[in-house]
Write a structure and sequence with these properties.
The structure is a single chain. The chain is an alpha+beta fold. The chain has one domain (2-114): Orthogonal Bundle (Arc Repressor Mutant, subunit A), CATH 1.10.10. It is built from four helices and five strands, in the order αααβββββα. The strands form two sheets. It has a three-stranded mixed β-sheet, with no helix packed on it. The protein has a two-stranded antiparallel sheet with strand order 1-2. β1 (47-53) and β2 (56-61) form a beta hairpin. The radius of gyration is 16 Å and the shape is globular. 10% of the residues are buried. Bound molecules: zinc ion (ZN) (2 copies). The site of one zinc ion has 8 residues, from α4.
């Protein structure tokens, strides 16, 4: 939970495990434990599972403001974007009503751009 709360975007179970191991907090923690606590977090309504690409589930805290994501094609990390797109309704055909929307930006993050 802590790691996800301070993360720059939604994380997958393996990313979480890597992050925990980096900070020494993950000593002895296995991927099964991560999956279990993520599942519990979703059941308790503390976490939301987001599937930005098919087959790749990432998790984020459920109390975040409305936001969208940036998916880096270099490192495959997902980043939170602040705010939203204005005037999306302009895209609607006459007579249509929008009830929800998703926006996903693809590209390379700053680190991957520097790395070339
Ligand atoms: Zn990247
Ligand atoms: Zn939006």
């Amino acid at each position: 939970m802590e790691v996800l709360a301070s993360s720059t975007g939604p994380m997958s179970a393996t990313e979480l495990l890597d992050e925990l191991r980096k900070g020494q907090r993950g000593a002895g923690i296995g991927i099964a434990t991560i999956y279990r606590s993520l599942k519990r977090g979703v059941e308790h309504g503390e976490l939301i599972a987001v599937e930005l690409e098919s087959g790749a589930v990432r998790y984020e805290p459920s109390d975040l403001e409305h936001h969208h994501h940036f998916l880096c094609t270099g490192c495959s990390r997902a980043f939170d974007l602040e705010g939203c797109v204005k005037n999306l309704e302009q895209l609607l055909p006459t007579g249509f009503e929008m009830t929800r929307h998703e926006v996903l930006l693809h590209g390379r993050c700053a680190e991957c751009r520097i790395a070339g």
